[in-house]
Amino acid sequence: MSKNLEISLLLDFYGDMLTDKQREVIEYYYNEDLSLSEIADNQGITRQGVRDSIKRAEFQLLDMEERLGLARRFREMRSGLERIGAAAAQIKEYNDHYIYSNELENNAKLILDISQELCE
After folding, report:
1. Which of 12, 77, 111, 113 has its CA 20 to 30 A from that of 26?
2. Distances (CA, A) of 56 to 4, 22, 104, 114
3. Overall pTM > 0.85
4. How many other CB atoms are found less than 10 A from the CB of residue 116?
């Protein structure tokens, strides 16, 4: 995952743990795609102050992820649910083409529905 997307994802998970100013600056930089100069003008601080704030916030977000692993766990669970959904779809397709079992059909559909619901 590219660093920009990674920081944006971490911001979703841990953004409330940053100071209001850090969160605002890093959101401008990563989510609004503003330049350091634009952010500095908006915030009334120097460009270097913006850069320092972003670097501190990035460090804190990465540190929190290293300690807590919530974003990593979220990605792992989402991937697992997608694999479960794909396996259930294969079972359903096999059941439709070879040995039709109403119980197997219903269970495969239930698994597909639950995995899709959890991935949303």
Report:
1. 77
2. 15, 8, 53, 40
3. no
4. 13
